[in-house]
Amino acid sequence: MWVSSSILNLKSSVLNHWFARTKGFGYIWCRAFLLPSLAAYNPRLESDSGNLTCFASSRHYASNAGVCSSEPFSEDIDTVVKNFVVVPSDCVEAIRNVLVKHNWIQRFDICGFSIELDQYKVIRILDDLFEETSDASIALYFFRWSELWIGAEHSSRSISRMIHILVSGNMNYRAVDMLLHLVKRCGGEERSLCLVMNDLFETRVDHRVLETVLSILIDCCIKERKVGIALKLTYKMDQLGIFPSRGVSISLLKEILRIHKLELAREFVERMVSRGRHLNAAVLSLFISKHCSDGDFDKGWELLMGMKQYYGIRPDIVAFTVFIHGLCKAGFLKEATSVLFNLKLFGISQDSVSVSSVIDGFCKVGEPDEAVKLIHYFRLRPNIYVYSSFLSKICDEGDMVRASTVFQEMFELGLFPDC
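C-alpha cells predicted for Pentatricopeptide repeat-containing protein:
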C-alpha cells in the first residue's frame, strides 16, 4: 500500500510538472510566435519598451549525450537563459516565418510544436533559420529558447552545429564562448574533448569553417593550460587532414616551449612545416627566447645569426629584441648594449622596444644614470614602459617624493599608468 501510494504521488508530481511546463510553454509559444495579441491578458510578459518578447520558464537540466553537466554552455548565455530569453520582436517575426514556411508549426496552431523536439530536429531548424536569413544571431536566439522548450540542456551535437553556424555567420566571439565553456566543462579529460571534436567534425558543412572551429577548440585548450591535450587534439586534427591556423600553432608552440620540452617543440615545428605552415621569424624567435631563458646564449646567438643561412629568413628587430631582452634579464647589460648599438650593422634600426629593454635592465641593476644616457643618445621619448622602470627603481630606494614627481610628469606628457 505504501509503495503504490508513493508511486501515485510520484506520478502525480511528474504529471503536474509536465502539465505546468506544457501549459506555460504553450502560452509563451502563443505569445511569441503565434498570437501576439494575447499579451494583453498578461502585461507582465511585455517589456517596458514593448519591442521585446520574453520567453520565461524554470530550468530543468538533463544529462548531455555528448558531455554530461548540469551547467549551461556559456556564462553570458546562462545569464539570459537561466530565467528568460529576451528576443527582439523582428527576430521573433523572422523565426516564426521560417518555422511556418518549413512546416515546423502552423500559423494558427496555438499548441506550439506538433512534434517532440530533439537534438536532430533542433539542428534541422537551426539550418533552416540560417539558410533562410543568413543571420547567425537569429539561429542563436532560437537555440537559446529551444533549450527552454525542451526542458533539458542541449546535446554536444546540437551545440557543435550552433558553433558552425556562428562561425559561418561571422560571430566567432560567440563560438569562442561556447567552445571555451565546453573545454572547461570537460575538466581536461581527453576522452570528453575527443568526443567534442568528433561532434564538431560530424556536424560540419564547410571545410574552411571546420578548420576555423577546430582551431578555436585548440586555442581554448591552450588558454586553459591543457597543453598536452591541445597537442593530442592537434595530431587528431592532422589525421582529419586539418591543421590549426598559424596563429594558434604559434601559441601552442610557445606553450610547449614554456614547459621545457625543446625536443617536442622541434617535432611540432617539423609537423607544422610538413603541413604547409612555413617557418618565419616569429617561430624562430620563440626558440631564441627559450635558449636565453635556459641561459644558453651561445645557442640563441647561433640561431639568430643562422636564420638567413639555414632557413632563408632574415632576422628582424623582433628577433634581436628577444635576444637583447634575454641578456638584460640575465644581467648581461654590457653585452645587451653592444648588440643594441650594432643593430645597424645588420641593416636594422633600433626601435623604442629594443631601447626600452636595455633601459629597464639598467634600472633593475641600480644604474639609472646609464639608462638616462641611452634615452638622450637615442632621443627616445619616454613611454609608459620606461617610466615604469624608473618608478620601480625610485620606489625601491624609498624616495617616494621623487617617485610622486615622476608619476605626475607622466600625466603631463599624456601618459597614463597601467596596472
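Residues 1-31, 33-84 have pLDDT under 50 and may be disordered.
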